[in-house]
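## Example pair
The file below holds two records. Each record gives the amino-acid sequence first, followed by its C-alpha cell line.
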Amino acid sequence: MNTSYNKYDSIEKLIFDEGLKISSLVFDFSKDKMFIHLNKNLTLIVRLSLYKGLKKANPESLTNFAVIANGTGIHWPELDEDLSLKGFFRDFLRQHVGGDHKELVIA
C-alpha cells in the first residue's frame, strides 16, 4: 500500500502544477458577469449572482478588489469576501458533472 502524502487536492495540484494565476478581473454588470483573466491566456466567466457576497454589491464595491494568495484568490475588502481559483474550478465541476449533462467536451 502506498502511504505517500499529497498535501494538495487534485484541483490545487492542477493550479500549482500549471502555475495558474489571476492576471486581471473585468466586470460586465449588465450581464451579471465577471471575467477572470488568467496568466495562461485563459478566461473564466463567472456569474456574479452565484456568490452571495457579490450578488447585491454595488459596482464601486465590486471594482475595489485585490488579487491575493500569490495570484490564486480575490479579496473584496468592502464586502469582506474572498474567492479562489480552486473554488471557481470546483463550482464549475459541480455544475457540469453533477447535472444532467451527458457529455463534457474538452477541446
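Second record, same layout:
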Amino acid sequence: MSWRYLRTADRLTNNLSNNLINMKIFKTNTNITLFFAASVVAAWSVPKLAESKELVPGEDGVELKQAGAANGKCPPYGCPLLPRDMYFDEEAQKALKAIRMINRQPYDDADVEIDLDASNQALELLKSVGGKDQATLTLIGYKGGNLHDQVNQDRAFVISPYHIQEPEGKETRKSSSKLLMGVFDGHAKLGELVSEYSVKTLPKLLSDKLEKLLAEADTDSQHAREEIQKALIETFIEVDKTAPAEKSGGCTASIVLQLGKYAYVANAGDSRSLIATYNKSTSEVKIVYISREDKPDLPEERNRVESMGGQVYIPPPERIRAGASSRVLYIDPETGGTNGLAMSRSIGDWAAGAKGVIPDPTVDAIDIEQLVKGGAACAAKVDARTGATFAVSATDGLLDFMDINDIAKTVAMSLYMDDSPHPLSACESLITTAASAWWQAKNGKYRDDIAIAVSKLSLD
C-alpha cells in the first residue's frame, strides 16, 4: 500500500542510513551470502498478525481468502508466480528458512546439519512463488489499529512463459521470448480491490491485443515497437475504466514485458522497474534503465494537472528534505474532505482523475540483444549464451528504504552467481532490511506493504 493520502514520507535518519549502507548484503565472490541479521530484528519488532488476510485470485471475481491461497488453475495466458507473505504466512516462512539453509546464512549455527530433503521440499512448496530464474515475494505492512484488520494492498506477478496466441500460419522465431512481470501498489480504502483486479485483468487484456498485433507485424520492426507501446497504454486505460474503484481506491502499476529481443517497461505511479546487466568475469552489475516516479511536481505532469483544473501542492523545502512528496489535491467523494495523491498517474483514483491524474503509463523499449552484445547502451559486455540481463519491479515500500544499486546487486548475484543464495532468499533479504528500516524510522507505528518481482531476461 502506498498510503498516498495521509502517509508522511519521512526517511531514515542520517545515522541509520549510514548503518544500513555499512551492512554487507552481498559479497562479490563465489561464496556469496546474504545478510539476514535484519530478519531477527524484524521478528522481534513486528507484531504477529494471527489471521492476516489478503485478496487472491478466485475462479469468479475476487474472493477474500487466507493469505497464500491459490486455486491451482492457470489462465490461458500462462501460470503466474504470485507472492506469498514471507513472515505472516507461517508455511512460507518455514519453507524460506529451509531454502536459506542451502547456503547457510551468517547467523546460522555452523554445526547445524543441512537437511537437503527439507530444502528440496521447500523449493517444491514455493514453486508457485519463484524458482532459479524468477521470484516474487511480499510482506504485509502495519497501518495502525487492530492487528487482525491489516490488509496487504500490494500485488505482484511473474508470468514466464507469457502465452500469446500465435496467428495460424505464422512461423514463430526462436528469439520471440515472452515474459510479463510487475507490481501493483494499492492505496486508499479499497486499493486492494484495484490492485487485485489489475493483476487478474491486465495480462489477459494485453495478451488479446498482442495476438492481433502479431498477426500483422514483425515484432522487431520500429512500427511494431510503436504498436506494442500503444497496446500497453491502451491496456492500462482499459483496466482503469473497469477497475472496482468506486468510491475510493487506486493502485500503481509498473510492469516489464519481454517480446523477443525487446523489453518494454510501462509505469504509472511511484512503483518502479529496472533493467540491469551482470558481467560474469568482473561481477559488475550495471543498471541500464529505470522507470521514473510519476510525481506531480515534474514540469510536464504539473502542467497537465493544472490545465485540467487540478492543484499541485509542493511542500516547503524543509519538508522536502525530510522526504515529503508533492501531491495532487482533490475532494474525496466518500468523506468530502481534501486529500492529496502523491503521484500524477495511477489506475483507479477517479476523483483525482478529474483533476489531471491519468492511468496512461510512460512506456520505453529496451533492446536486450544490444545489451548482450555490449553495445553503446551498456559499457560492460555480457555473456551472450546466458543473456545476463534481468529485471526488477518493486513497490515503494521497498524502494523508500533500499538503495536501488544494492537491490540490483543482490538480485544479480542470486540469479547468476554460483553457490549464491536462491532468488527467493535474495528477495527475502531485501524485504527484511527495508521492513526493519520502516519499523525503526516510524517507531513501530507504521510500516508499508512491500512487494517485489524479479526475473532473468533471456534471448533463448
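Notes on the second record: The two ends are 36 Å apart (CA to CA). Residues 1-70, 171-175, 375-386 have pLDDT under 50 and may be disordered.
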